[in-house]
């Protein structure tokens, strides 16, 4: 805490992982002897830079850019860029720390990193976004490369922003290096299923958990917070599997649609028009917008928090449990507070932590890198089957590790220990670096 003052989210993420590791450290003192935990608390490299840009009124604006290259034991640094006014070093470090273990769990040869800026894209014109992305990449490019560091999207960074970032990288380096960014458009090096992968994967993981109890998603009520990339495709996959998505949200409030979310309308409002929750309600009879209270007040069988960190707290967990929730799967990173998590665990609710449940996104990014390296492009069906296999493997690995360490059904412990062992063994093999 003294080395990293004021970085509350980073402390929370580290504590959550380290709390799981007691049994593995007792069994393998070599991790302690080699100071693996201390090393894991210190990113390999942290880059903070000025991002100057000019707004449409001709005013010079300054934002702060970050890239935390956290751990490269398993491969090049890999993790998204977040553009949101709340971004500061503590957020980027928490996300980078989580990413190390998630990437290890995915089974792909990728290390952990994360980046972003306190730039707020909301209300900015397309030209302002482009100029910001170009300025951001004008500094960041020197740290990137397909064998070094490969960013992707996150909150506020979708295919449009990846396009502007890629264009600037190409212009500066004079290289068409497809593998330097993932989340690209299909016609210029992207992978089918990458857009859908995080949301789809989260739902597939939830279904795997339910299957251990002889249940599935068919006929279930599902609540999904957020209405961005992860949330929309979580709703899509849940609907395909026979569930009814009854609520979604954005930062202006939440929408209840008892008839089931109209996915085509939601995509049009959010992905095409870049509109707000209210625009959905205006066009969808029978739905309503709630601007106070919490989306978790809506009675549901399965809760999928897919917006942001610490969005589901103790009170929300109590309400969900009272309303009979059977499973929670985190599409977002660390959306559940530690107090809420404790309540779910005490109640025996199936609970999938983000580093396992949302690993499908980065895993499909690694599939995009494979396609770029072989100059190939796979079909939607083939790529989706690969994603489904990966999610089954991640689920099986977490479940088996939880069993092995005497915590059957505890996916938090399973994910933390399985991810840790893979990274720690690679770090030990590579010496004191
Ligand atoms: P998007 O920017 O596409 O969507 C984010 C959604 O969450 C928006 O609806 C946004 O509402 C809402 N939201 C964000 N911050 C807040 C907040 N502080 N309060 C209320 N609502 C908020 O991001 P993604 O869908 O890509 O990411 C969502 C989560 O999933 C993040 O935690 C991210 O780290 C995680 N994730 C994403 C992956 C990916 O592949 N994209 C991979 C793995 C994890 P509004 O538009 O009003 O701000």
Automatic annotation (TrEMBL):
GO molecular function annotations of the record: glutamate dehydrogenase (NADP+) activity
Matching SMART domains: ELFV_dehydrog
InterPro entries (UniProt xref): Aminoacid_DH-like_N_sf, Glu/Leu/Phe/Val/Trp_DH, Glu/Leu/Phe/Val/Trp_DH_C, Glu/Leu/Phe/Val/Trp_DH_dimer, Glu_DH, Glu_Leu_Phe_Val_DH, NAD(P)-bd_dom_sf, NAD_bind_Glu_DH
UniProt domain Glutamate/phenylalanine/leucine/valine/L-tryptophan dehydrogenase C-terminal: residue ranges: 191-431
Record text on subunit structure and interactions: Homohexamer.
Similarity section: Belongs to the Glu/Leu/Phe/Val dehydrogenases family.
Protein name in the entry: Glutamate dehydrogenase
The species this protein was found in: Oceanitalea stevensii
Gene expressing this chain: gdhA
């Amino acid at each position: 805490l003294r080395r990293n003052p004021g970085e509350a989210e980073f402390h929370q993420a580290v504590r959550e992982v380290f709390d799981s590791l007691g049994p593995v450290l007792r069994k393998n003192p070599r991790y302690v002897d080699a100071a693996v935990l201390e090393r894991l608390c210190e990113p390999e490299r942290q880059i903070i830079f000025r991002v100057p840009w000019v707004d449409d009124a001709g005013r010079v604006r300054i934002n702060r850019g970050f890239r935390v290259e956290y751990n490269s034991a398993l491969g090049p640094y890999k993790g998204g860029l977040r553009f949101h006014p709340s971004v500061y070093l503590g957020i980027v470090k928490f996300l980078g720390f989580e990413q190390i273990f998630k990437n290890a769990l995915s089974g792909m040869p990728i290390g952990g990193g994360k980046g972003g800026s306190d730039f707020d894209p909301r209300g900015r014109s397309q030209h302002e976004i482009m100029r910001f992305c170009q300025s951001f990449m004008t500094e960041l490019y020197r740290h990137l490369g397909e064998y070094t560091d490969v960013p992707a999207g996150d909150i506020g960074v979708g295919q449009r922003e990846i396009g502007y970032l890629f264009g600037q990288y190409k212009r500066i380096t004079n290289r068409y290096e497809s593998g330097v960014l993932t989340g690209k458009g299909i016609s210029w090096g992207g992978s089918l299923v990458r857009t859908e992968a995080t949301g789809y994967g989260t739902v597939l993981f939830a279904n795997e958990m339910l299957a251990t109890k002889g249940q599935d998603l068919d006929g279930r009520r599902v609540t999904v917070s957020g209405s961005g990339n992860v949330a929309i495709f979580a709703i899509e996959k849940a609907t395909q599997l026979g569930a009814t998505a009854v609520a979604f949200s954005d930062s202006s409030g939440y929408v209840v649609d008892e008839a089931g979310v109209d996915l085509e309308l939601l995509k049009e409002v959010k992905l095409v028009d870049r509109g707000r929750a209210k625009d959905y309600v205006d066009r969808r009879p029978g739905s309503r917008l709630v601007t106070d209270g919490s989306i978790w007040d809506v009675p549901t069988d399965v809760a999928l928090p897919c917006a942001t960190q610490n969005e589901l707290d103790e009170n929300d967990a109590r309400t969900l449990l009272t309303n009979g929730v059977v499973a929670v799967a985190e599409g977002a990173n660390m959306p559940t507070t530690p107090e809420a998590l404790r309540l779910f665990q005490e109640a025996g609710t199936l609970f999938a932590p983000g580093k396992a449940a949302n690993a499908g996104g980065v895993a499909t990014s690694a599939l995009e890198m494979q396609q770029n390296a072989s100059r190939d492009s796979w079909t939607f069906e083939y790529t989706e089957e690969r994603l489904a296999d990966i999610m089954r493997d991640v689920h099986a690995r977490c479940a088996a590790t939880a069993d092995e360490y005497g915590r059957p059904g505890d996916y938090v412990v399973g994910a933390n220990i399985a991810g840790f062992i893979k990274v720690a063994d690679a770090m030990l093999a590579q010496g004191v670096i």
